[in-house]
Structure formats: C-alpha cells, structure tokens
Amino acid sequence: MAPMFTSDSPNSGATSQKSAFSFNVQNSRGNNFFAARSAASGMQTQQQEQQMDGSWDMGDDVSDGTHNDNDDSRALAFHNGDDDEQEDTMQTVDSNHPNYFDTYAEADAFAVHLDASTAQSDDPEGAPTILSGYDLADRLQDVATSRVEAIKEHFPEDATDDEQAELEYWQLEHQTWEIFAGLTSHRLKSTNGMEIENDISLELVQNKYTSNARFRQFLMQSDPRFKEWTLILNWLLQYAPDPMESFDEGAPGYGSGWMYTKESLKSKKRLAGKKLLSLQANSNMFFAKKADRKTLITELDPDAPSRQHRQLEEEDEEAERNFMKFLWGFVRKGDISGARRVCDESGEWWRGASLSGNDEAHDYNIDGHNLVDEAAGSSQAVVGNRRRELWRRMCFAIARKQGGDEWEKAVYGVLCGDVESVQLVCNSWEDHLFAHMNSLVEEYYTDFLTNYARIPSSATKFPIFNSTAFHSKNGTLNDDSILTRIIDSLAAAPVLRAESRIPLRVIQGAILSSRVHALVVDLDRQLENLKVDPDYNVLNDDDFIGLDVTDHRTLRVIVHLVFILQSLGVEFTQHSPYYAAAENIIAAYIGFLSLCGKNELIPLYAGRLSPAKAVDVVGGILVSVKDDGQRFELLRLMRMHFIDVEGCLVKTMEVCLELTQGVYERERKGVVRLATLKGEGLKGELSHEDDMLVRGLEWLVLGGDGLKSEVIKKGVVVYKRFLLAGRLSAAKDVYDRINSTTIISSPEYSGHDLNLSASVHRHFTDEESFWSFSVFVDIEILIRALMALEDWNETLKRRPERSDRIWKSSSLIAYEKVHSNLADTIKDWLDETLADAPPNCDTSFLRDLRNIYIPELTFALHDVYIDAGKWLNKTMLSNCLELATVVADPGRSVLDTFVQTGRIEEYVCAVAGASRSVLGAGMEKDGLGIWNVR
C-alpha cells in the first residue's frame, strides 16, 4: 500500500511551549497557536448546506446561543441573580483593554451549560439522559460561537499575536464541537440502526436514464460509512478559507488572455516580414533573450501548450499560476459554480466548461426536482453531465500530465479524487485531510455505481486514481482502520508535525478516528508520571502527541467530551475499561477549578464522578477552603449534586492528617517547658500544618450529628499531635473553635461531668466513642489549666511599680483560678480515663502526655505559689509544701511521672528552696511557716 502522505511541500509549524508543573494559564491561552498560519481562517460567509438527520446542522455555524431550558433551580445555581444565561456565560469584552479576554470566563460558560444540561437529565418529567448529551454538545458549540462573535466584534485592526491566537483558538474549538456533534449523532444512530435504508427501489435500478445523483442520495441514506466520510468532507469544505479573502486585484494576468505571449507572437510575425538586415538583426537579438530560455507556443488556443509541448511567456505563466491558485481556493471550498463564474468573468469560458462536468446529469421529467441544486428545482431543463466518470478520468489525465503547473494539477486532482496531485499544494493539516477524504468519497461513490452497472465501459478504459489501493490494507474501502491510519500519517509527516500537535488538532483527529479514549488514557498516563516525578516534562516524553495535562483548556475540552459520551452511553461508562482514566482526568480539571478559585463549580463536576471518587476528590479540595461563607455554599451545592457530604468531610480530615503526619512526628518532644507561656504563650502564631488540622476539624463539625463521634475521635488525634509537639497555641485554638460544649450543644452538658449528661450518651452510644469523648474532655481540662496559668503570667506582667488595690484584686482572682485549675489537674489528670480505656485502644500517648505535662504543671504551680507569696501574701508560700505532699503521695500517679522523666531531683531542689522561703516567712510572723505545715 502506498504511503498516505506523499507531499514534500514546506509547511512551517507552531512551536510548542511547555507549561509549568501547575496549570500554565498564560501559555494555555494559545499564545503559540497556529504560529504556522499567518492569518485566521475566519467564519466563512459561503457554506455548504448539509442538513443532519440528527440534532445538528453541519452547514449552519451561526447560533444565537439561546436555549429553552427548564426551570430547575440547579441551573445557574452558582451565579448571583443574573437571569440572562447568555450574559452569564460570556464575559464582558472591553475593547479598550489590551488583554480583554478573561482566561477563566470559559470555565464559567461551560459550567453553566453543563449544569443546565444536567438539570434536564434529572428532570422529574423523565427527560432521557441521551437528550441531555445532545443538548450539552449543542450548548458547548454555542459557547465557542459566541466567543468568536464577541472577539470579532471588538477585534482591533492592529491585533497582537495573542489576540490573533485567541480568535484562531475559538474558531478551531467551534469547528471541533461541530464535527464532534455531527459524527457522534451519526455514529450513535448508525449503531442503533436508525439511519439504515437497505432496499434500493427497483425503478431506480432498472431505469438507465435516471440521474446518478439519486444513487448518491440512496447511498447517503443507506451506508453509514459513506455518510460519515461525506460529513467529514463537508466539514472540511465548510471551514476552508474563503477564496475571495486571498484575491489580489493587483496580481498579473487575471483575464489577460496571455497578453505577453500574444504580443511576442505578433512582434515576431511583424518583424519576420522585414527585409532590412538591421531590423532582422534586432529581431534576432530580441528573441534570443527569450528563445534561449523557452520555446513559445505558436498558436493561442487553450490546448496549445499541451499539444505543442511549448510554453508561455514568463509573465503569462505567472498569471496562469495565480489564476489556477485562485481557482484552487474555490475548488477547495467545494464551490465549483464559483470557480466557473470566475472563469467566465476572466474570459476563460473553456476553462469554466471543463469544470462543469462535475455535476451529475438531471432530467426533470425523469428525476423530478433537481437533486443537485434545490434552488433550480423549478427548472425543467436537462442539466449536468451523463458521463461524469469519463470526465473524472479526463481530470486525472490533466492532474498527472508531465510538466504543467502544480496548482492546475491540484484543481483537477480534486475533481477526479487524486490524492498525490492535490497534496503538492496542501499547506495545512486540513488541506491534507481534505485530499484524503475527497478521494475516499469519490471512489466509494464510484464503486457503488459500478455495482449497479452505472458506469459505461468506455470510461473504464482510462486510468483513474486507485484510492482503495492507496488507503486500504484489505483491498476494500470497508476497512475500519482507514481513518485511523490517515490521521496517524498526517501526525507523522515532518511538514505537519507541529500543526498536528496543536491540542485541538489532536482532539479533532481522535474524534474523526473514534479514539477519544486514547487521549484520556494518555493524559491519565501523564498524571501518573507527575505523581511519581513532580519535575516530569511532557515535552521530553517520547510518547508526547501534543496534549499536555497541565493545559487547562485541553482538560476542559476533553472533560466535556467525556461527559457527552457518557450521557450518550457510548463510552466511559462505569463498565468501560477507560472509566477510571476518565475519572482521573475529571478530577484533574476539578483541581484546576480549585486552583483558580472557582470552588463553586467543583460540586457540579464532582457530581459526575462515581460516589467514591467524588469523596476522594472533593475531600482533598475542601482542605484549602477557609472562608465560612464558601463552606456553607459548597455544602449546599454538594447536597444539590448528590455528593456524599459526610464522606467528603471525613476524607478532608483524613487528608489533613496524612499531609501533616511527618511534621509532628519529627517535632515530637519528651519535655515541653511551660516557661514559654511567659513569652508568646498560648497566643503564638499557628503554622500552616496547625491551621490545616484545625480547618479539617471545622469541616467535620459542619457534618452535624452524624459526624459528632468522628469529630471527637479526630479531635483527640489532633490534640495528641499538638501537645506531643509542644504546639500549645494550636491546642488552644482547637479549644476556642471546637470544644465539647459546642459539639454537644445542649444545656444538659456543662463541659465537665460526662455521666450526668444524657446528651453525651445519646451521641456516643458505643464504648469507644464515649471513651474518646472522655479523653477529649480531659485534654480540655489541661487546656483550661494552661489558660489559667497564662492569665496569671499576664497579670504579673501588668504589675505596677507600686502595688495598688486594683491590681491586687485582679491578681487574687487570677491566683484563685490558677490554684484551683492546676491543683486539680495535677492530682488525677487522665487517671480515670486510663483506667476505663476499652480493650485494644491505644493509651500510650496518654501516658506520654502525663509524663510531659504533669511535672511541668507541678513546677509551674510551684512558681505560682512562690510569686503569690512574694507579691500577694507570704502565707501563700506554704502551698508549695502542700503541693509537695501531693507529689509524694504513693496513692497517686504524680510521683510516677517524675520518676519516669527523671525530674525528682529537680523537684526536690525546688521544694528545698521553697522551704527556706517558708521558714523565713514564719520567723517574721511569730513562728508561722514551715512548722505549721502538716
């Protein structure tokens, strides 16, 4: 089989820029898009009429972007009070602003239409899901159409490269949604047998005078492959550049009739009749300059160059080349009548006549209304060519003749279905694809006519391009791999490699060859590589095909393609082998929405995931949400889109714990000095990890009664991390924002006695939960003791140089508070909780907490008594000795903490110092002091 790509014509390509590891917003706007193309192709004014039997009109690319949506409250749920959907979907364009395209507005526009389409699929009236898929595809094309129109409306004459790239991007995305919609509708209907019309009428077969156009019409209705190829071909014709845009009025020779050659022949004939030697010599010199270069034709009929194997003057050769290049534009557009009109207006009627053979013959008396031109349906004249197949072979002979102009060969190559002659002038991916599709359609149609003996034997004697041999592996055009191999051949061609790697070109190729799943798999592969290696660069990947998973526009298009195919039940359903990869890509797009601050869109997209995946994705994203207003709005939207709220909140807490685990393990301390409370104390600034854990607990609290047990269990873990690492300010923050009284939220519960509160037992019915709650409350007792100690220290800092009654009064209050809180805590903190621990519960961290904080609280209270005796009343010094009896009590566990931490000697020294102070105070007050301590 011959290679599908044969052209060596130059075609510069767009250079690709690698985006950063995170989503590269600036590059992904398409700054380098179509660098190989000097101007935008634009929305064409001349379009082929090809009415789809499905939901889309391939010949009408103008849309007002409006829909008759139902009133489901979910539609536009994340917009604030704007009832005009079109204004919501499109950004306001400011033509005076040099960068007037909002990079993220497209995410809003697509989300609005996705939400409206989703609302339709959940309509209580029972609107089928498949219709929501069709509706979404239609809507997304409307978005692209509106973007193109908005950009064009304010497009400056001196547009920058970025502005030009933005316009070209949206034009190409518009085309992408159109071909996707048309092909998907056709393929789905073909699969379901909705377009098949197998029986050709007997009258059509037996009447040898009927038009072949009726056979083409039947072939379109009965053969899905032919219709699919025709749809692709019409799409390529529809968006081909308008030839009039490239028309150059100053180009030489349009309609000149070989002026320079004609004058040369006249001059030669006139001068050849002169007898004067001088004139003869001059004529010889005149013609020598041109005769040395070429042999001119001697006659001026159109066939002279080919018949005589001679040439025209250089100026006329250039004019002919320009003229044929101009005609190529019309033929490439599928506008043969326009090409004939140009020929007639240029005085080349013979050329126009040669092009007219493309129309099949039509006799009104036999065939009824005109199948070729509906506008001429009332005409009863016989029109068209009854020997079109013979005419095609004539075109093939011109396309393959030796010498001649490549543009003329390309024009006739299109008419006959030749690939190789057309590729000589192709300069874009679309042009090359057009050459293939045009050839396939022509040969498929010819084979069909041959099967019904509609081609005269005289025509078959002449050669024609064998598209079957060129494209097929099995000797027939009924080869499902043809489109795949065509797309792959274009991607592999060196002159097209850059353009073939433009993301939307890659996506178009995948749509045409039914390989969208391959793109999803490749993007998923990139995601896995990024997880393993954050420095992974897709441009250095040997398997790079043009799609970058960090490009948010690529993700946006792919994700919405997946949604439509899922709605149609075509691909990426739960039993599909590509379902997991598709969910990973959707999750990546949700990650982009989170990074650009569009949290209100996340539930809409997460609602399309499986329940477990939605929990994983949303749970991970909620970690970064801090604003209370956003939290409540997200919870509302999550419930609206049927996302497991409790599961997400639990996942959020798990993610917080997982992300911060290593930090606290590295900072775990054996001793925490409460002397730091005299510095920044409990009011120190929280670290990023501290804040993350507290936010995770706050999310759990929002889960309501169903998550109260989870709040307590995870709260104990968070307290454990903070206290073992000595992050007392973080522990205080948890107490302030999430304490047991707010969790229980009942007047029956005071925050102390667990057994007297029915609310506690109602929320924590199982033994483990109730025990976790008791641990949580015990830790709060420690926090309150630390708070009392901090208040005392703050009071001492405010001590005036001369003691006054006001300060002394406040100091006594602070002293009583710290005395009661610390003394009670030291005596039996965690003793009962440790004794009541259920089997298999880890209690080692509680013992560690006791060993860290009981000795330190003891030293702190000892210092309080010393300071109180110094500044308030010397009798308070005796409390140091009372505290020593508590520490030495063998019936308590306090002494064990000093033994296990090796701090007994340190405490004995502290007590000895206090004893001397007490003794001194006693001598001053008539024996009061140490001797009165029991």
From TrEMBL:
Region named Disordered: 1-23, 38-73
Pfam families: Nup84_Nup100
InterPro entries: Nup84/Nup107
Keyword match Oxidoreductase: no
Keyword Secreted: no
Primary residence: nucleus
Keyword set, alphabetical order: Membrane, mRNA transport, Nuclear pore complex, Nucleus, Protein transport, Translocation, Transport
Compositionally biased region (Basic and acidic residues): 64-73
Cell location: Nucleus, Nuclear pore complex; Nucleus membrane
Family as reported in the entry's similarity comment: Belongs to the nucleoporin Nup84/Nup107 family.
Record text on subunit structure and interactions: Part of the nuclear pore complex (NPC).
Function: Functions as a component of the nuclear pore complex (NPC).
PANTHER family attached to this UniProt entry: NUCLEAR PORE COMPLEX PROTEIN NUP107, NUP107-RELATED
The protein, known as: Nuclear pore complex protein
Organism encoding this protein: Discina gigas
Source organism phylogeny: Eukaryota, Fungi, Dikarya, Ascomycota, Pezizomycotina
